[in-house]
């Protein structure tokens, strides 16, 4: 179960990412229209953009762990028409507006943000690791620590 947390304190994208990673899991990752609708309900009370976790490194999510996503989820996008356009060649981060659409935005701008957390009894972390890999146990430990999960 995803839990979303609106953070009204204005921060630039990097500060927002650090805050979300410290307090929750990361800046919000939007995987499907259902997520957009939930976030739109949260943001509908505000008339300004809010940071989400998408950034220009090939427009990837801040939560970059591929094992977190099902097929197609990491590629979900909901841009305004004509976006991303990198206006003035300095828009490398993404903000979501209360209209459900996204806009590339200057990362130095200070705006609110939306963080996400993953919790619940029925949350299963998809772990895809080659067991023959020498880094299996260190990776397993890292994944288990990051989600406070138990191996079943």
From TrEMBL:
It holds the Pfam family Lectin_C. The keyword Transcription does not apply. Keywords: Disulfide bond. It comes from the Eukaryota. Gene3D superfamilies: Mannose-Binding Protein A, subunit A. The keyword Disulfide bond applies. Residues 1-116 form the C-type lectin domain. InterPro entries: C-type_lectin-like (IPR001304), C-type_lectin-like/link_sf (IPR016186), C-type_lectin_CS (IPR018378), CTDL_fold (IPR016187). This is C-type lectin domain-containing protein. It comes from Amphiprion ocellaris (Clown anemonefish).
